[in-house]
Amino acid sequence: xxxxxxxxxIILAPRGRDAALAATMLRDGGIESLIVAGIGELVQAAxxxxxxxxxxxxxxxxxxxxxxxxxIVEQEEWSDFPFILLTERGGSIERNPGAARHLELxxxxxxxxxxxxxxxxxxxxxxxxxxxxxxxEARARLQTIWDREQQLRIALSAGxxxxxxxxISTMTLDASDHCKANFGRLSDQPFRYEDLVSSVxxxxxxxxxxxxxxxxxxxxxxDVEYRCIWPDGSQHWVQVRGRLxxxxxxxxxxxxxxxxxxxxxxxxxxxxxxxxxxxxxxxQRTREHEAxxxxxxxxxxxxxLGQLTGGVAHDFNNLLTPIxxxxxxxxxxxxxxxxxxxxxxxxxxxxxxxxxxARLLAFARRQNLEAQPVDVTALVDGMTDLIQRSIxxxxxxxxxxxxxxxxxxxxxxxLELALLNLAVNARDAMPEGGKLTIQTSxxxxxxxxxxxxxxxxxxxxxxxxxxxxxxxxxxRAVEPFYSTKGVGKGTGLGLSMVHGLAAQSGxxxxxxxxxxxxxxxxxxxxxxxxxxxxxxxxxEDWQSHGQKLRILLVDDEELVxxxxxxxxxxxxxxxxxxxxxxxxxxxxxxxxFDILVTDYLMPSMSGLELAREARKLRSDxxxxxxxxxxxxxxxxxxxxxxxxxxxxxxxxxxxIEAEVAALTRTLSP
Length: 669
Description:
The protein is α/β, with parallel strands linked by helices. The protein is built from 23 helices and 22 strands. Helix 11 packs parallel to helix 13, helix 13 crosses helix 18 (494-504) and helix 16 (412-428) runs antiparallel to helix 18. The longest helix has 41 residues, at 118-158.
């Protein structure tokens, strides 16, 4: 709306030259005007914007005024459109009852009896325009208030906050829909202060009321957290903050916000319990053996980090890689029996740390899984003696396997570890002895089984006759670090590792248990064909051929790169090192290499990206990718071999020679 429109006069005077004369008078007074021919044009012009309307009394004679009435009724709350009504000579209200009807219709109207002096008209018009400007100012203030309220509503909604106001004199509570939701109420349900108080947990009611009283007595801000019981019986946590407003009269009120903090409280409780459990383990193992202190301290760190993210294990694998490699090289070069024994012990400790990292990665679904067709029947049959020794003589082992091979697509090493974990868990649940049953079968799953895609699956059932678990324990059984065993008797990672293995392999883990009735663990794995098992068996064992190679080694971790380079140099290879993908590409452009050995997780350019760029320079370049986990961000380079960290010298040598040999076979005529 322009200024001319918002402050112009609308003139409706159908008789003679009245309209033109009125326009001239107003123009002389500095007021622009618009002459209209009828009520319809007047209403439209007023809707487009005007300061006031100047209408002669006769313009209303025998005219349909419904559109004008709608305009007046439908005005916004800030608007009270002014009218100046020119009456006939002697047309006062006492002498003209019709004028009174127009007063009721028009509302904000000033009567001007004709004839009149131009100065009188200008004075009345200026007053009407001044009143209209005050209306515009009120509109601007209302718009500002509305904008601020809208911003506040958006901010509260974005922060998941509920707004509330409590009138202290009447104890009347006004709560927003989001505030009601924090207490389990629907938006259309009444929510009084009495309802709020009755929903507070009895153990927290005293603290809540004390906080309210302290705010009313001292004026300090109200800030309290307490539990509340929803109408459906569920328990939730809320944080309520408020401030006392006192206008100096008798009107006092609390104004504030509420927030559902149930998830935050649950996380805090979990962390507190977890920290307490870890502290008990540290104290117990310190008393048992001094040498276990460092190992347990490291396990404590890994457990905490594993609870937050499985990716931390990648960094730990980077630390283990030079340790394992260096110990392996030193062990190969020393002839002193005592030193050999110490190094063997150190390597065994490193392997234990490696196993712990694998379990953490299994729960996080980021471990190095080399899924392949596995004859589960043969695998279980071959583990019978090992399982029997693990569970002891007081427990009888009953293995029931199909005569026909049962094949699953899974990492065989991880599956063996999972079965051993389940056997040890069963043993601990039967301290007085009992029976452990392991059964394998092939099951065709239909579309009605939740969590599994339809198709054939290999089912492995491990059942014991132990103490069993109640519903609460069963619900938490696969949580990482949750254990019902005594302090120092378990890490709480066994079942979580099995659960992670099943999920990452495309299957699932099902637990069935009742107190006193034992536990049955059902491990579902995708089935594969027996022909695939036969095809996956290597045709010959690996043997070192002692070939000297030119190797480009890339790793952004200097410690890891130096340790790996020492191992490669000890094998007799020629090594060139690079600390980034960009540096490696520059080296590749300047000289030839027999193989590229690169870390996966590096800044700016990952190992897979480096492999693709390197093969643009030389398409037949063998590449060995060293990684701490298998869940790669870009897994399109399926022809890139991988070696898991940490590794020993023979594992590194085997992988390099296998890649070079594969290329040689490919290029042979």
